[in-house]
Amino acid sequence: MTFHKYHGAGNDFILLDDRAGTLHQQFDQATIAHWCHRRFGIGADGLMLLRAHPDYDFEMIYYNSDGAPSSMCGNGGRCIVRFAHDLGIAREEYSFLAVDGPHRAKLLNTGDISLEMLDVEDISEPEPDKVFVLDTGSPHYISFVEDSNQVDVYAEGRAIRYSEPYAKEGINVNFVSTDGKQLSIATYERGVEDETLACGTGVTAAAIAAVRRSGIADGAFHVPVKAKGGDLAVRGVLRDGRYTSLWLEGPAVRVFEGEF
């Protein structure tokens, strides 16, 4: 079986071309987890299948590295668009179906991929001005800290992820700091159960939390975010407490292909 490896700012994925619809039933949770294992398999934060869909350019089927079906993955969404382009699915603007609904995406002149994310309105603040909880296709806990690079992401993130009320369903935990010009982020991902070098839905959630925290008036915003694996950015519009026209931008890179 031929596989392809891609990464989005260090968030890496195994991609499979399943337009024929013959691969999906061959995978159980243990097999996917084995493929994603970094010592005994190929190694990845997740596995995706690109499947044909009658109403969209393709459908994105995503699994976390533990082999379980996952909620939306922003960097995965950008990487599967690059994969579709590399397979010869040429579009000026892509439209694909993911687990959280339809998405649009564009190839930018810089070579980066821009992915439209779902609108966000419901944001809670367990600790006002410091901790924010919101869903950007996946649930996220955003904690603003002095320096995200100094946080023990595995230990502190795991403690929050398995605390109440998050333990049963799980939550992604992000530690975010700012120098006034851009955000820096470190993420513990559920399903991977470890730190990842970037998380697209987490970057989107962090940008929204930063805009909310700043107290700026309604209007357009652009938030650069430095993940440990690369630079991303989030564009959007704030209007009457609702965050719309959200686009996640950043690299999506083909690494290699092989046979398993």
Automatic annotation (TrEMBL):
EC number: 5.1.1.7
Subcellular location per the Swiss-Prot or TrEMBL entry: Cytoplasm
Top EC group: isomerase
Pathway as given in its UniProt record: Amino-acid biosynthesis; L-lysine biosynthesis via DAP pathway; DL-2,6-diaminopimelate from LL-2,6-diaminopimelate: step 1/1
GO molecular function: diaminopimelate epimerase activity
A UniProt-annotated Pfam family: DAP_epimerase
GO biological process: lysine biosynthetic process via diaminopimelate
Marked site positions, Could be important to modulate the pK values of the two catalytic cysteine residues: H140, E189
Reactions performed catalytically: (2S,6S)-2,6-diaminopimelate = meso-2,6-diaminopimelate
Main localization of the protein described in the UniProt heading: cytoplasm
Keywords attached to this entry: Amino-acid biosynthesis, Cytoplasm, Isomerase, Lysine biosynthesis
Active-site residue numbers: C73 (proton donor), C199 (proton acceptor)
Record's GO cellular component terms: cytosol
HAMAP family noted in UniProt: DAP_epimerase
Family per similarity comment: Belongs to the diaminopimelate epimerase family.
Subunit structure: Homodimer.
Protein name: Diaminopimelate epimerase
Organism: Neolewinella aurantiaca
Gene: dapF
